[in-house]
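User: I'm new to structure prediction. If I give you an amino acid sequence, what do you actually give back? Let's try with this one:
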Amino acid sequence: MQGDTEAERQLGRPRDARADRAILEATLELIAERGVYEFRTEDVAARAGVGKGAIYRRYGSKDELVTAAIAGLVNEEIVVPDSGSTGEDLLLLMREAVALYRGSLAGRLMPNLIGAMAQKPELARAVRDGFLAGRRAALSEVLRRGVERGDLRPDLDVELALDVLGGPLFYRLLVTGGPIDEQLAEGVADLILRGFSPDESRSRKSSKSRKEQRA
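Assistant: Good question. You get back a string of structure tokens that encode the predicted 3D arrangement of the chain. For your 215 residues, that looks like this:
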């Protein structure tokens, strides 16, 4: 019995889930305000209302803490719409993306994350896998369904279409500062339907054939 008590003491107390959340939320807020490099672990502890030891017990380094915070940022499953219309499904997902980046923590985080991703491969992986992958997967399903319905060309380059969907939003967010709004969501969804419609398939194949002949 005494041995069991000693073993429990060595294992320590269970981690406090509230402290877990507070630490990660404080880290995200500080990244949004100051950037990845301009805050200290002590700043996270002060904002989260925990001791530094609580952070060190959970994360071996600041990089590990930042990566964990980003990986857990999007924890709600993205519902793939199925309205019966490819255009409407694309518009619904684009509206969600606009709402996400227009005024939320995610929109404030992204500019500071982009600059750090090139120097920190683990952070880049966390952003792509934990932050962007879910939305791209949902859009991919809608695009493939559009091909099956005949709304989009049968030889659709899904990865290119995904980049076209996200490109204008991130360009405005990171470069021009242009409006991220309903008009953007509608314009991008319409661009996909027009640019990748089955009618475009023949002309693009013909263009490709001509380029190959010139080569």
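You can read the tokens as a compact description of the fold. Here is one thing that stands out. Residues 1-12 have pLDDT under 50 and may be disordered.
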